[in-house]
Amino acid sequence: MTELPELPELPELREQPEPPGVRTARRRYVTVCALLWLPPGLAMASMVLLFSERGMSLAAVAGLFAAHSLTVAALELPTGGLSDVLGRRPVLAMAGALNVVAFALVGLGTTAWVLTAGMVLMSAARALASGTAEAWYVDTVQAHSGPDAELRTGLARGGSATSAALAAGLLLGGALPWLLGAGPGLGARLSEATSGAVLPLSVPVLLGAALRVVFVCYVLTVLREPPRPPATLRSVLRGVPVTVLGGLRLGGRDALVRRVLLTAAAVGSALAAIELLMPGRTVALTGATGSGALAYAALSCAGFLCGGVGSHLAPLAARVAGSGERAVLVCLGACAGGVLLLGATASTTHLLATALAVVGFCLFHLGIGAASPNENDLLHRRVPSAQRATALSVQSLALQLVGALTGLVLGTLRPGPLPWLLTGAVLLSGALLWLRRADVRSTPVTTAT
């Protein structure tokens, strides 16, 4: 009997260990996300009340926030192009420096023009930071591991850090003025010592300014970028418009990028409905404005926490669903279900209906948190590094513009199930865009310039 020749041993199919640079980049990205979003969380709870305490009417406060939104929308694309041309680290540092000044003006300002200047600077900083940290992370990981590098885990952890920072900031920003007011005249003595410049409601905003200083120092000392050609004033002025146009063309030429942008628009519609309609529902539930505002703050904090959990579960969702696209479909379907549940319970404050509304609210944020890293993982595999921040800015702009338009439309409708059901239908349409599988290639699409 002839012996069969020995077959060579097959190598074990093991996961390749991550390069140390990838783990370091992920850790730094998570830290940047937390430092970037903790100050807005701190200011969120007290800013409207601070403006009112400074003697501004509700219409004037609405005007300040309108100026903020319009400035962000106007600067989204140019600042995204600036990040692609000039680099991620200098743009993030500029955003942090502008925010130091903006938070100081808002925290200390006593006149309308000073507060307006603070809000405009804050919105410029918001536009500069939009997508820049994420673009830095993707660039760094792909520089270490190539274009097929695994991105979803880092994006998910960054989303979890963002949500956790917003939730922690909201709680701390709401608690600090209350603690200063509850103490033995601490708030009054603080106001008296600063001639009224620093109120208890100013403290969370000023703490946010101090954290922005920490953010700038961290960005300048820790973040490192893959090499890029040196930028001159002429190259920046010529490169930004070209980069912006190239980013806009991506949405028209690439079906998957277009799908991501349409999904962002649908999510913007749902977020606008949440922000516009939920405060009124909490006031109707509690029967008083003050307790309603407190209930909404607690609900918002729960929403941020659910978003963080959803982001953490994004890689698991992709594995269970079989692909990133399927995960987006399932997660956005869950979001739409949450909004429709809010619509089904909108006409009553019965205990069971209220419990179901809270479930719908949390389900919406959980689904958004899980869908976003999977969407952006797909987006980054289709967009070249030279247009990455611009593509993220286009995505953000689609969300904001459709959200603003939705707010105007919903404002003309009577409160009740109808606004929720319409918004839920829009979000469900965005989810159904992912039914048909696209060609998910990791080679970025290049656009002629």
From TrEMBL:
<dbReference type="InterPro" id="IPR011701">
    <property type="entry name" value="MFS"/>
</dbReference>
<dbReference type="Pfam" id="PF07690">
    <property type="entry name" value="MFS_1"/>
</dbReference>
<feature type="transmembrane region" description="Helical">
    <location>
        <begin position="294"/>
        <end position="315"/>
    </location>
</feature>
<feature type="transmembrane region" description="Helical">
    <location>
        <begin position="351"/>
        <end position="371"/>
    </location>
</feature>
<protein>
    <submittedName>
        <fullName>Major Facilitator Superfamily protein</fullName>
    </submittedName>
</protein>
<keyword id="KW-1133">Transmembrane helix</keyword>
<dbReference type="InterPro" id="IPR036259">
    <property type="entry name" value="MFS_trans_sf"/>
</dbReference>
<feature type="transmembrane region" description="Helical">
    <location>
        <begin position="256"/>
        <end position="274"/>
    </location>
</feature>
<dbReference type="GO" id="GO:0022857">
    <property type="term" value="F:transmembrane transporter activity"/>
</dbReference>
<feature type="transmembrane region" description="Helical">
    <location>
        <begin position="58"/>
        <end position="77"/>
    </location>
</feature>
<feature type="transmembrane region" description="Helical">
    <location>
        <begin position="392"/>
        <end position="411"/>
    </location>
</feature>
<dbReference type="InterPro" id="IPR053160">
    <property type="entry name" value="MFS_DHA3_Transporter"/>
</dbReference>
<feature type="transmembrane region" description="Helical">
    <location>
        <begin position="29"/>
        <end position="51"/>
    </location>
</feature>
<feature type="transmembrane region" description="Helical">
    <location>
        <begin position="161"/>
        <end position="181"/>
    </location>
</feature>
<feature type="transmembrane region" description="Helical">
    <location>
        <begin position="201"/>
        <end position="223"/>
    </location>
</feature>
<dbReference type="GO" id="GO:0016020">
    <property type="term" value="C:membrane"/>
</dbReference>
<dbReference type="InterPro" id="IPR005829">
    <property type="entry name" value="Sugar_transporter_CS"/>
</dbReference>
<feature type="transmembrane region" description="Helical">
    <location>
        <begin position="97"/>
        <end position="121"/>
    </location>
</feature>
<feature type="region of interest" description="Disordered">
    <location>
        <begin position="1"/>
        <end position="21"/>
    </location>
</feature>
<keyword id="KW-0472">Membrane</keyword>
<feature type="transmembrane region" description="Helical">
    <location>
        <begin position="327"/>
        <end position="345"/>
    </location>
</feature>
<keyword id="KW-0812">Transmembrane</keyword>
<feature type="transmembrane region" description="Helical">
    <location>
        <begin position="417"/>
        <end position="435"/>
    </location>
</feature>
